[in-house]
Each structure stands twice: as C-alpha cells, then as structure tokens.
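lol so apparently i was supposed to do this last week
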Amino acid sequence: MKQEEHKVGELIYDANIYDGMNTFMDDFEFYKRWTTKGVTLKVLELCCGTGRLTIPLAKEGVAITGVDFTETMLTQAKSKSLNAGVQIDFIKADIRDFDLKNTFDLIFIPFNSIHHLYKNEDLFAAFQRVHHHLKADGTFIFDCFNPDIRFITEGEKELKQVSSYATDDGREVVIKEIMQYNHQTQVNSIDWHYYINGQFDSVQKLDMRMFFPNELNHYVTSNGFDILHKFGDFEEGEFNESSQKQIFVCKVKS
Ligand SMILES: C[S@@+](CC[C@H](N)C(=O)[O-])C[C@H]1O[C@@H](n2cnc3c(N)ncnc32)[C@H](O)[C@@H]1O
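anyway here it is w/ S-adenosylmethionine bound
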C-alpha cells in the first residue's frame, strides 16, 4: 500500500534532524506505567521511529519489539539500542499490512503517529492488524491530538518559527511552519521551511489527518475494541473539552 496523495518529507525523517527536535519525554512515564505491570509483558510498539520510547522502555526491562516503515529511522534506532546495550527486535513493516506471526500483551502507537494514516481504510487496516497481534486479554494504547480548529486557523495566517536546535552531527536547524487545513479530507497540510546553518534548505511536507473525538471513539469501538479509558493528558486526567490530547487505553471487545 502506498500513501500517494499525502506525505512526510524526507528531511523530517532524517534521523538526526528528527532526534534533535524530538527531545519530548512527557509521555515516557505514562507508557512505562502501562508496559511495566509487575510481570514482564510482551510489548509491541508500532511506528517506533528512532526508538525514543522503545530504548528507554527496554532499559526498564520491558520485552519490546519495534515496527516502523522508514529505513533511516530504524537504522538510527538499531545503532542507539546497541550503544545503550539493550536487545530489541526492530522490524521494517507497514503497520497497515504486517504479520509478525506472534501475539503481544500490549501494543501501542505513540506520539501522534496515527495522524499519518490519512484515510479511514488506513486507520481501520492498522486497527485490524493490532487486533490480530493482540492476546485475548491484551491492551491497546494510542495517543493523538485533539484537533484544535482555533490553533489551525492561527497556523494558516503566517510563517512562524517553531523550532531551533543543533543536531548531534553538527547542523544548526531552524524550522518555520505554516499550515493549510482541508475541510473535506480532514488533512492538515503543514509546510516546514528548513534553514540549515543559516541558509534556507527546503520546504518539507508534514501532512496530518485530524481525528475528531466522537468519530475516533466510534472508529475504535467499531473495529473490535472496548475503550477502558480515554485520557486527555499523560497524567491520566479524563478527556474533556480543553484536552490537547486523546489517549486511548483499549481492550479487545468481549
Ligand atoms: C511521529 S514519528 C514517531 C516515532 C516514535 N514513535 C517516537 O515516539 O519518536 C512517526 C513514525 O511513524 C512511522 N510511520 C508512519 N506511518 C507508518 C506506517 N504506515 N507503517 C509504519 N510506520 C509508519 C514513521 O516512519 C515515523 O517513524
């Protein structure tokens, strides 16, 4: 399966550019709590990227496997896990059509990754694959944004600087952002203008499909899961109208 119309630019998944920007770890304690429940759980992370969560979770003793379809991200994940001295199976696959011939106690899709499943059939295919790989009493967790129309409207007005940092391989990066939301497809088409070492480099696409709360609840329950909890933040506050996040903890429908 190919994502023909929507995409994420190559520079965004340049592993050092990605890691330099994504130092966020506010979700780590949450995922640690759910993946370390006294017994050793067999855990699968879908869309594991460069192992931002995978590697520290493995260091906590979690038996974890990571799946992602971007080669550059997996290469970085493998090299970082070697340096950290942890054993993790990193597998290259598309979460919409993979088969590991294995089942897991807990499967999670963190860090807004479902926004890259642009069409309903992409999301439903991934949910079906999760269902297939989950033990009967297993847990499925994922997080994404709660779409904020006011934020998007502001973001459409002008190019704004959103990040400035140095990469491990010595590049000074500045990112400026402007977005355009498509009210039919629900895809927010974000342009990131990259400046590297003080020079304009390129414009990279970061398309994100927005999922509204009531539709997402329905998609989860109509694809074979019961929602145990819906949190609005990683401290496990209940989801409400001001929540920036939608965090689902699900079980296979009984
Ligand atoms: C926002 S990054 C999250 C990476 C990592 N989980 C983290 O927390 O930093 C999204 C990741 O999802 C991966 N991805 C997106 N769509 C995918 C798909 N259909 N199958 C496999 N991986 C996918 C990308 O390659 C990228 O590494």
